[in-house]
Amino acid sequence: MRDNIKIKETRIKLSTDIEDHGLPAFILKERLLLEDYIRRRPYFLTSLEPLTAEDGPTIVRMMSKAGLIGGVGPMAAVAGTISELSLHHLISKGSKYTIIDNGGDIALINDRKVNIGLYAGDSPLSGEIGFQLKASRKPRGVCTSSGTIGHSISFGRADAVTVFASRASVADALATSIANAADGNKDYEAVENALEKAEGFKNYFHGVLVVVGENAGIIGKIPKLVKTDKKVTIGELWDV
């Protein structure tokens, strides 16, 4: 089944084999835990530096750990963390196929091939290519950050930095950190700087794609690139 879930800033496109998924109530509960923590510790919301949060609920500790890995503030991982938690909620219900797309920050488990589109703003690659993910019993994260589109804070000018990792929370933080480094007078320089930054995170991801204008670079191993036959939005997916 497919569903759209909107709870405050959370905007999820859901595809799952679980009919009675109960995801809105689960996400609301997690958001309330996060909001209560922020009320007591407002700096958690605004910090651009990593923070420790050993006394917080699971969502807070996951965000904090991801931020520490990526060298960014914990809120850089909020969307990916909600995706990851939501995925494990449905896995606990027996799901073999679930894709949680939270504004381009995706957590998934898939028993069949699936394609995920690349949206990269004004880059000529935007909407023209996608990633074909093989079936996998293991949860994965596919998260994208950009300095030219969206509302997230970025200090670089990448049209898209897409990170493939075992955990969506970590992929989200790494995408932000790598996108921050995508700067330079020339587009190819921005790509090179971002890839240099990504080099330091190799133990935490499978692969990274960086797109700046007509220039792109890859580090690690990314899924097979496929040409799309339609314009796609951030993280839009379609079954093979």
Write up what this structure looks like.
- Strands 1-2-3-4-7-8-9-10 form an eight-stranded antiparallel beta sheet, with helices on one face.
- It has a single domain, classed as ApbE-like domains (T-fold, Roll).
- The chain is an alpha+beta fold and 240 residues long.
- A hairpin with a 2-residue loop joins strand 1 and strand 2.
- The protein is globular, with a radius of gyration of 17 Å.
- The chain starts with a strand and ends with a strand.
- The protein has six helices and twelve strands.
CATH C-level category: Alpha Beta
Helix content: 25-40%
Question: Average pLDDT across residues?
Answer: 89
Number of domains: 1
CATH superfamily label: ApbE-like domains
Q: Tally the helices.
A: 6
Write the H/E string, N to C.
Answer: EEHHHHEEEEEEHHEEEE
Largest pleated sheet: 8 strands, antiparallel
How many extended strands? 12
CATH-scheme architecture? Roll
Q: What is the strand content? A: 25-35%
CATH overall fold name: T-fold
Ends distance: 16 Å
Overall 3D shape: globular
Looking across the biggest beta sheet, what order are the strands in?
A: 1-2-3-4-7-8-9-10
Gyration radius (Cα, Å) is 17 Å
Please mark out the parts with pLDDT under 50 across 5 or more consecutive residues, or reply none. 231-240
The secondary-structure class comes to: alpha+beta
